[in-house]
User: Fold this.
Amino acid sequence: MMKKLIAAVVIILTYSACKFNAGQTALPIYGNRTSVTKTVDGKTVTDTVYQTIPGFKTVNQYGDSITNKSLDGNIYVADFFFTTCPSICPVMHRNMLNVYEAFKAEKGIKIISYSIDPKHDSVAILKKYADKLGVTGNTWWLLQGKKEDIYKLSESYLVTKPQEDAKQLFIHDGYFILVDKQKRIRGTYDGTLPEQVTKLIADIKTLKAEPDQINGK
Amino acid sequence: MKLKVISGIGLLMAILLYSCQSDDQITLARYYSIGSIIYQNKCQNCHGKDGQGLSALIPALTDSVYLKGNKAILPCIIKYGLKGKLLIINKKPFEGDMPAMDMAPIEIAEVLTYITNSFGNKMGIVTAHMAGDDLKGCK
Assistant:
């Protein structure tokens, strides 16, 4: 009798444990955080302030001015690349095309690729690159900005700051960074690995369903 | 007993015959397997795991007609790269640059053996000797 009871409890517990796991509702929030204590209506309240992506000024492949504000109300994926990159960029953008295909019909989800070689990657070159990649519309923006600004900005995305080696080649890493509507970093993925990019696509769906994202402007 | 001996000898003969007759095939297999590793290290990032290329940016390596028709310049393309040359591959135009790969003739032969016998291509071996001869004619 006792044994049967234990078995039943174990089965129920196992079942509920599985159910818990299935309902994974929130992604972690990355970056530095600080707490701010303020007084609201005579009470002391402590709030957590998360690291966010700072403002930037760039131009996209259509010649439109794109700033941090252009991404308001969007969940987005960012990466750093350059059009003449012989090493990891083709793999990254082959994988990023999967993200593009998955979300190009949806509003509120964007992809931005910052060029780290703005001297070469003019608006015309970026447009040509997008055309050849098969990217149209306003889901995926390829951005040109001031080199120092972009390099500085890369630190806010928690990726390795790009460098130039003796041969004037650019060294950078191939991370895709997932940013939410509050401009907080919610995930980083190795853009050269197809399975990580599959996880990114799944995580975007999870993120979209978070209350903060549904209500966020 | 007799039967065992006879079948044993038969088996031995079969093995011998098999291993002798396919000397060329063994060479091909050796080139091919080394070539696949070179491909992974030096070509795959751009041309893809299945030689599929990348949209209209990077050509696929699946156009058997192109590969056959340009067999003699393939070693040159690998060694010296391409700059602003228009190629029609799978009926689509490509005009991007390809970086030069500093490889020895034997490595070029191995990777070409891999490429021209993968992704739906079946062109047989490219030997180091053939690649070396082709390299002399590079423009």
